Amino acid sequence: MNYLEFEKPLAEIEGKAEELRALARANKEMDVEKEAAALDRKAEGLLKELYKGLTPWQKCQVARHPDRPHCRDYIEQLFTDYMPLAGDRNFADDHAVMGGLARFNDAPVVVIGHEKGNDTKSRIEHNFGMARPEGYRKAIRLMDLAHRFKLPVVTLVDTPGAYPGKGAEERGQAEAIARSTQKCLEIGVPLIAVIIGEGGSGGAVAFATANRIAMLEHSIYSVISPEGCASILWKDAEKMREAAEALRLTAQDLHQLGVIDRVVKEPLGGAQRAPKDAIEAVGAAIGAMLKELSGKKPETLIRDRRQKFLDMGAKGLAA
Predict the structure, then answer these.
(1) Beta-carbon neighbour count of residue 40 at 10 Å?
(2) What is the pLDDT of residue 313?
């Protein structure tokens, strides 16, 4: 288990419990279960206390936790008959974006998501979930496919933002993000988005301009990272805590503001502590959101989706 900075007291208690059990495994005559169980109860109480009042910056840390389930994990557990489709038919295949045809609850869908990877090798391969233009163009191709065959689209968002490299900019990064966002607004099928970790900048909006948007309880969604915001506003990236507060990037804040439609509860201690339970909770939310949109005509889905985002702008001006 990888512990976050604010979880250090918890790490000490759980570490002591594990040390006791390790001693007992080495010496069968030792009976330490009573002491270890007491430490377990203390750790559980501390875990509840820590996660009862997380600050926005602490939620950023949880959302970025390397052990949280990633897009591939959700696809493997929630979808069947997954058929990956690669490439943008123009330049290359971007491994930061994965997607294809699949079945959800035995109904055909198109699923698209950002994949960060889960170890050093796979994180480099997937560019830490930061898509290049070809990734967004692949998503556009898949959304066109969904529209043509009248298949709902499910997107799983987990990215710090679009890749800012020179090559990506030369190949039209901003244009690709804009066209992906535009395509989200044009398709006449149900479009469901779930923020499963980080929802950073236009790189997230390009997948999350949806009829229904859900966020995991400890995920984040913002126009810029707290570090980037702090660098611009205060010329000091170390003021990321203040920036996280100001950005209103938590699921709870965004639900209150009407930016998202529902908050998906995570297991105690975050999705990283019980990935299977977190994935099942997301699956239940996807099923409920698809049911809400079932039977709606294409023109109704498009109109409602556009109006949803126009209303957000009107509320922002009023505020």
Answers:
(1) 14
(2) 62
